[in-house]
Amino acid sequence: MLVGNAIVGQSGGPTSAINATLSGIIRGASRCDSIKKLFGMKNGIEGFLDEEIIDLSFLFHDEDKLSLLETTPACALGSCRKKLPNLDTPSDVFAKIFEIFKKNDIRFFFYIGGNDSMDTAYKLSEYAKTIEYEIRIIGVPKTIDNDLPCTDHAPGYGSAAKFIATAVSEIATDCAVYKTRAVTIIEAMGRDAGWLACAGALARKYNGMGADLIYLPETPFYDNEFISAIEKCFKSHPNVVVLVSEGIRYENGEYVGASKQSGMVDVFGHRYLAGTAKNLEALVKQEIGCKVRSIELNLLQRCSSHILSATDISESVAIGKRAVELADSGQSGIMLTFVRKESERYEIDISCVSLEKVARRVKYVPRSFINSEGNNVTEECIDYISPLILGEMQIKYENGVPVHIRL
Amino acid sequence: MLVGNAIVGQSGGPTSAINATLSGIIRGASRCDSIKKLFGMKNGIEGFLDEEIIDLSFLFHDEDKLSLLETTPACALGSCRKKLPNLDTPSDVFAKIFEIFKKNDIRFFFYIGGNDSMDTAYKLSEYAKTIEYEIRIIGVPKTIDNDLPCTDHAPGYGSAAKFIATAVSEIATDCAVYKTRAVTIIEAMGRDAGWLACAGALARKYNGMGADLIYLPETPFYDNEFISAIEKCFKSHPNVVVLVSEGIRYENGEYVGASKQSGMVDVFGHRYLAGTAKNLEALVKQEIGCKVRSIELNLLQRCSSHILSATDISESVAIGKRAVELADSGQSGIMLTFVRKESERYEIDISCVSLEKVARRVKYVPRSFINSEGNNVTEECIDYISPLILGEMQIKYENGVPVHIRL
User: Is residue A158 within 8 Å of residue A142, measured between CB atoms?
Assistant: First the structure.
């Protein structure tokens, strides 16, 4: 039996649920006999290299603080975007990391992150095989983008999807108050995969007000088809709401957000990256000439922890707890995954997959989730997302604003 | 005693609380013996001119529907931006409006709106004096901008302020996860008055994470002072968060959002209105060269009814009820107002003021609410806003998204 200390880090872009997974790991570690102390690395592997670690044991069994942590947005331990070198590149960074592991008797390593973070965990687990130091390396998924392969969905996606469904329903309701023709273009995150924009369909289905058109990076974008689709919508109502992924592209691969559509140049003549919705706003203004507005959901879609999916948060805690159990049982070099059961009611199992299979790979929205015109999603897509946004968390407020915890 | 039908309309930009005031008027009318039927005008006075009116009596005493209405965003009756002609201009519009009043035996007229809508109500009440038809004309305030004079604050402001305080705290928490220097510029609405941006200070005070710098239209903006202020912030932390009103201006009166700062021109050579935060993003990039991001809160600040101030909603309902009582008691040509009592605990009275005194006038943020450098707000400002965002509403969700009512 391996006994020693454990360390947990958070890496990549924040989500509203990454602290819930941290809480799950803390909860798991507090009940695991093999783990003596649980450390947290500040700012992921980058801070770890500077030995910026804190003892998280003060949180063990502190139900109030752990609950607060589960509804605190962003990464309570800080984050980083550091990429480790390839294992065949000469570098002393791995030796240094393992030196700090040894010095602190760290035998369990948990890294919560997305595609790039799984690459970090994978390299560490591969390096570990080459040296005489036993350590279990575990990747725990998180990403609002939901583009991690091998898992039914990623922790963090459900809360982001709930925010988007809610925000789109509210914006569509707001835009419907006037009788004059207007187009509102909402931009969701998603550079390569359109999972976040898909969530806008839930607004239409369950609230009655949502996006008329949804465009994802998975199918090519055509200006003329876009304008025709809006004009078709105008036949039934004067306020058209469009939801686009930031990463939609023309057939030639060029990003709509980077296109010269708007023809903007700055004082140095540089082409200006106006943003996807902003460029489409200019296009609609030019081609249709009606009132048009663009709205970037921006950071709020990943940090609006005042509106969380209770399903997402409880799953995020559970996957953190399970990560500790799997490490304790001898697993290493794995990422945890959600497996949706083939049952009528939504149920998941937590399983795992070799890190090698997920590192730096992307899961796209399947074609069957997108309608034939490429301007909306199908019922199959809605059925997939619907259970992930269910349930609301009790948020603690003081003086009218949410209470968050700082570590 | 005047007995007849009543009508209510909503006008101007939507807020998260304008339907709560509508609910208050419905609640008031259902208990008022002088009111036989309560009609709602679709799309304000514009729809009324087309006789688009609906009978709202089906909502009388329907507690479930009224509760839902109170947490439904935007204007359930639709809105308009129609401006009535001046009374000394030849026009048949007033005669037409009063003809429809007579035809439907409308004796009580309630108009929920901001500065421009109060102008409409004022003109109708002045016209009413010139003819032989008794009708009581009542203006009921709403505006997230909080720029209506003669009232301590406007219904709708508290909920918008609560959203802004919460969103700014979440964005600031999200931005603080990396160690690298970065500036995040958040843009709140407010073309002339900076009340909404002021709310960002509550995030800092009560959540610990908020805007480092706040700029309002009430004081002139200087590029060089802005850059120096950011550099000063960098001395204590690497992530600087700035909150600006969309309407901030240079000393010469030019809007920062319209400036040639970014030097953008479109394909026709037209100057491009990039937006205030977007222009400041370009300025910071040029002058400091660090990572910089701009975020427009956009429509969400006025329609995020999933996070409401319970104080705002209960006051918005109360002012609607009181409007009916005052009309019943013989008042006309008035706008209802909130008067803050001189008590230690926050308490308000509902009073009224002649419409003439409010129509098309603007209440600015007083100088004593702004610090001497013009880059933040004072404790006096925070003390003013704090009670307005208190309390949370129970929001009804189905299938993971909020339930709204459609009329």
Answer: no
Decide if pLDDT at A192 tops 60: yes
CA distance A266 to chain B (A): 5
Averaged pLDDT score across all residues of chain B? 95
B289 burial (CB, 10 Å; 0-12 / 13-18 / 19+) is exposed
- Using CB atoms, which residue from B174, B304, B305 is nearest to A303? B174
Q: What is the mean pLDDT of residues B103-111?
A: 98
Look at residue A226 and give its three-state secondary structure.
Answer: helix
Model confidence over B316-354: pLDDT tens digits? 999 999 999 999 999 999 999 999 999 999 999 999 999
Determine the Cα–Cα distance for residues B261 and B274; give it in Å rounded to an integer. 10
Q: Which among B16, B117, B177 is the top mutation candidate for probing chain A, defined by the most A β-carbons within 10 Å of its own β-carbon?
A: B177
Residue of B nearest to A14 (CA): B174
Cα–Cα distance between B133 and B102 in angstroms, integer? Answer: 8
Q: Please report, for residues A41, A152, A193, B102, B266, the alpha-carbon distance to residue A336 in angstroms, rounded to integers and kept in the order given.
A: 20, 11, 21, 71, 49
Contact B5, B107 (CB under 8 A): yes
For residue B202, the chain A residues in CB contact (below 8 A) are 399-401
Q: Which residue of A has its CA nearest to B295?
A: A298
Annotated active-site residue in A33, A88, A145, A383: A145
Burial class (CB in 10 A: 0-12, 13-18, 19+), B258: middle
| pLDDT of B262 strictly over 70 | no
Distance of CA B29 to the CA centre of its chain: 24
CA A190, chain centre distance (Å) = 9
Residue B59 one-letter amino acid: L
Q: Which residues of A touch B399 (CB under 8 A)?
A: 202, 205-206, 386, 389-390
CB-closest option in B43, B79, B299 to A171: B299
Contact B288, B183 (CB under 8 A): yes
Confidence at B359, pLDDT banded by 50, 70, 90: confident
Which pLDDT value is given to residue A212? Answer: 97
Average pLDDT in the A143-171 region? Answer: 97
Q: Using an 8 Å Cβ cutoff, are B244 and B186 in contact? A: yes
ipTM: 0.96
Q: What is residue A386's DSSP assignment?
A: G
b/e for A231-246, b at 16 or more Cβ within 10 A? eebbeeebbbbbbbbb
Say yes or no for a CB contact (<8 Å) between B399 and A390.
yes
Smallest CA–CA separation between A80 and chain B, in Å? 6
pLDDT tens-place string over residues A48-99: 999 999 999 999 999 999 999 999 999 999 999 899 999 999 899 999 999 9
Q: CA A145, CA B226: separation in Å to the nearest integer?
A: 35
User: Residue A145 catalytic?
Assistant: yes
Is A341's pLDDT higher than 70? Answer: yes
Rounded to 5°, angle at Cα B312 from B307 and B317: 115
Chain A closest-CA separation from residue B47 CA (Å) = 9
Query: How far away is chain B from the Cα of A130, in angstroms, using its nearest Cα?
Result: 31
Please, what is the angle between helix A63-70 and helix A310-328, to 10°?
120
Q: What is the DSSP letter of A364?
A: P
Q: Which two tokens stand for residue A97?
A: 């990391």
pTM of the predicted protein model: 0.96
**CB atoms < 10 A from the CB of B400, how many?**
25
